[in-house]
Amino acid sequence: MSLFSRKKHAPIEPFSASTHNLAPVPLVSLDDPDRKSTIGLEYMTYEQLDEFGQELDAVRQRVLDDLGQEDADYIRRVVRLHRGFDVIGRILIFCVFFWPAVVVGVLFLGISKILENMEIGHNVMHGQYDWMNDPTLEAAKYEWDNVAPADEWKHGHNYIHHTYTNVHGMDRDIGYNMFRIDEDQPWYPSHRFNLPLAFMLMMLFEWGVMYHGVELDEYLAGRLPKEEFQARKKRAMRKIGRQVIKDYALFPAIALVAIAPFTTWWAPVIVLGANIIANIMRNIWTFLIIFCGHFPAGAETFREEDVQNETRGQWYLRQLLGSANISGSK
User: Fold this and answer.
1) Confidence check: pLDDT of 26 > 70
2) Does residue 186 belong to any structural domain of this protein?
3) Cα R_g (the chain), whole angstroms
4) pLDDT tens-digit map of 201-229
5) Residue 167 DSSP class
6) Number of domains in the chain
7) Per the domain annotation, does 232 fall within a domain?
8) Could you tell me if residue 238 is inside a domain?
9) What is the pTM of this model?
């Protein structure tokens, strides 16, 4: 679909959540299925937790029932904005004879990638816009502008992280198997290098997300079957190839053929550098936003035994206790 496409979109049907599973996947204790979870008991009684869950389910249903044209117009407006920034940015980075244009082009391209990853890709892959009947915004088909394959992101983020948020031994996002960010994590000598490792991850964040999704550590520990690991590795290599060709080969090659003979033979290098910087901009932004979500002081973590057999209300409360607010404009 082009930037200025007037193609008619599929009609938006009245959306109902009645066929959706309202409950998270429970962590059931096989040893004691009658055991009650202790999550939230320092704040509420079991009865209050049940009421809390019902109240938030009602809020959820109210929001789902209100979805409609306004929401569809919003996401399509963001998609157009992203594409506009992308097109203008890529044109400007080819203006190698006028460096201020290249600088603005890098900024526009970086903003485009941030919008696509964080406001479009993340939300679309959550299934947030499946109700629109728009195949370009369907979670099962969407592939984002990132070296991490969408399938691995959806499994690791949508399912593992959001179901078992901040549960030690289950939520692999706690420290990403690199950092010690919580006092309940065991300490290893490598944790002396938390700061330089964090800086390195920030600069290369999309590659860290890709590696995290492949789950090499789970495979080496014997918790991931070889066939599944090989399939993930194959998807990752295929996605890396597409992204590297697009950003680091295709556009520099175009600059070499179309721009360099008339300007400077440094043109492909400048275009390559512009793409690298734009990707680093996106990496820094996503790193900062994601690390603000669950890692700051005050965000609680939980033990696996504490969340076994948790109720809907306890699951909601755990999401709140394990998350941090970010102040900013709307």
Assistant:
1) no
2) yes
3) 23
4) 999 999 999 999 999 999 999 999 999 99
5) B
6) 1
7) yes
8) yes
9) 0.89
